[in-house]
Amino acid sequence: MKLTKTYYHIAFWLLAYFFWVYIFRNNTLVLTHAITIQFCYLVFIAGNYYFNTLYTVPQLLNKKRYLLFGVALIGGVVAGALLRVPVSMLVNKYLFKVNQVRFNSLSVFFDSFVNILFWVVLILTAKLIADRIKSQRYIEQIEMEKAANELDFLRAQFNPHFLFNSINSIYAHIDKSNKNARDMLLVFSEMLRYQLYECNVEQIELERELNYIRNYISLQKSRIDERIRVSFCGDGVSGNIKVAPLLLITFIENAFKYVGFNEGKENCIEIRLAYREDSLEFSCFNTKDSYMSTGVANASGLGIANAKRRLELLYPGRHRLDIANNDHHYHVTLTLQNV
């Protein structure tokens, strides 16, 4: 993606360069002069453009520091015009062999300032308008997907009171001596209550999400082979941290669903959470055998794809997801920034 953007930038500046050479050659300059002069302008115009797009726009304009933005914009153009004066002098002297007695530094500075300012403002304005249109389309897409998700949720919704009454009835009919079954049903009821009543928000306290994860792990440990070691470490995460609900559980479900058992080898599921410098770091590792490799690649694709899409919508530019998948293990690492 970054390489593609680089090609786009190179293509744009080449087209701008050829455009300027063609226009100004027809008006006042011969071809060799136009090629050299417009290249000099290109360097200073491009330098000012990237100075503004990488610094002044995100750090000043987007933060409504308009006065500083104006000063920085003009200051960059002035710096470019000042630098072009000695460059023009050297080009005239050594390339065009022009008599330096007639060289007017003030005139060169003024012409450079006007030209650089005009093209930088023009290109920067076009870039801001394009970004605005792209951002508006992105917002509209999110709103449409949100509405579609809400409609799907309403269509799939069932009567929670009936469900909990049924769970209570089943709990009452389980023999009191079967403590494990009764405890599992209580844990399941708590997880279901969390999904139905607490997850209808964009952000939820991480501690509540961790409690749901612990309950899920507790239920799954009773299902899988007891020789598979399961470890979960999230106790060190504290503070007023909020995350999107039910985002991490997809990767954990995938680990329990496809964990493999190999005789003579350590088989494990390792889940880790850590919070460092405003970033939440999540890791989920599970062993597998070669027989399950194809199954993991095919069967888990939809859940992982949905999780990736949620990350793009909820944490655009603020997440990094890496997945290592081979014949022996499946390892997910996810970093959420500024949470």
Task: Tell me about this structure.
The protein is α+β, with helices and mostly antiparallel strands and 339 residues long. It has two domains: 2-152, no CATH class; 223-337, Heat Shock Protein 90, CATH 3.30.565.10. Helices cover 66% and strands 13% of the residues. It contains ten helices and seven strands. The protein has helices spanning 2-27, 31-61, 66-95, 105-156, 160-173, 179-198, 206-221, 249-258, 290-299, 301-314; strands at 204-205, 229-233, 242-243, 268-276, 279-287, 319-325, 329-337. It has a five-stranded mixed sheet with strand order 2-4-5-7-6, covered by helices on one side. Strands 1-3 form a two-stranded antiparallel ribbon. Helix 1 (2-27) crosses helix 2 and helix 5 packs antiparallel against helix 6 (179-198). The longest helix is centred in the middle third of the chain and has 52 residues, at 105-156. It is elongated, with a radius of gyration of 31 Å. Mean pLDDT is 80; it is low at 27-35 and 294-299.
